[in-house]
DNA sequence: AAGACGAAAGTGGTTGA
DNA sequence: TCAACAACTTTCGTCTT
């Protein structure tokens, strides 16, 4: 193995040439080792925070993810496969080939981007069981993002997730950032950031999420009757009328309403059960529940 | 024993200077 | 860019069923 010392001449000038996969002695030129693997990360980092985020075990990302590694390249060395120099005429030809290859790549990068994005979009959509209408609108929205050049500098996946998030909300079928994060593998804040960005740049008009939109999901997950569902939505209507929900997380409010409604209909669920399906804590339910009870003057036997 | 309740301290994100 | 801030979570002790 590479000891940092040349076995032939003893010189310490040992050079790792990753482009050729060789370890050579910088002094006498002997090849110490052939076919070495490049253990350098395939990413660059600009500060320690990034380095921590990107460092990981396993194979380079480009082999784990389809499409990402699939770019053809014409390398920069004017040599044939045996390493011999090639004629000036051929060199000129190679130069032109490189040039046009590069141009063609850029022209098709948009197409490729879209292709990756659409397959990812489809994957997430089926994972979340979204209807075709959502997929269509989401795809359309993504195309708008490309046109407006909003993708550059962002992971395709995070934009896709943001687009789906936005579309779901616009169609009154909201998903939480949590859910998107789970199926896309992108961090919640990253999706949120991308979402806010495209909403601003495309000036999308997306209203605040109405808590009652979450109610059917929660009641279904808790196997509660339609009666409870209606009751919960009625409670929320009143609460909204009193301006009780502004600034509150919609899931928390919805969860509290479901909790109250379940108790009122004698189909009681514990705070913990409701909290789990809603993705909030019991404490939050209690806080919302307290507010609802107070403001709506509810008398409930609990 | 399990659930409900609430206080206090901690966390991550938004906002306004 | 930074500090203040609101919403939410975590943790923990107490009370109720």
Which features characterize this protein?
single chain; 302 residues; mainly alpha; N-terminal domain of TfIIb; Cyclin A, domain 1; 4 domains; three-stranded antiparallel sheet; 12 helices; 4% strand; DNA-binding
Number of domains: 4
Strand residue percentage: under 5%
Helices and strands: which structural class? mainly alpha
Structural shape: elongated
DSSP strand count: 3
Mean pLDDT across every amino acid position: 76
Sheet with most strands: 3 strands, antiparallel
| Separation, N- and C-terminal Cα atoms | 73 Å
The CATH architecture category of the largest domain equals: Orthogonal Bundle
**The CATH topology of the largest domain, please?**
Cyclin A, domain 1
Strand order, largest beta sheet = 1-2-3
Helix tally equals 12
Give the C-alpha Rg: 29 Å
What would you give as the CATH superfamily of the largest domain?
Cyclin-like
The helix/strand order is EEEHHHHHHHHHHHH
List segments where confidence is low: pLDDT < 50 over at least 5 consecutive residues. Answer: 42-54, 56-70
Structural description of this entry:
The protein has 302 residues and is mostly helical. It has 4 domains: 1-55, N-terminal domain of TfIIb; 66-105, no CATH class; 109-201, Orthogonal Bundle (Cyclin A, domain 1); 211-296, Cyclin-like (Cyclin A, domain 1, Orthogonal Bundle), CATH 1.10.472. The protein is built from 12 helices and 3 strands, in the order βββαααααααααααα. A 3-stranded antiparallel sheet has the order 1-2-3, with no helix packed on it. The longest helix has 41 residues, at 88-128. The radius of gyration is 29 Å and the shape is elongated. The protein binds a DNA duplex (17 and 17 nucleotides) through residues 189, 192, 247-249, 252, 270-272, 280-284, 286-287, 290, 302.
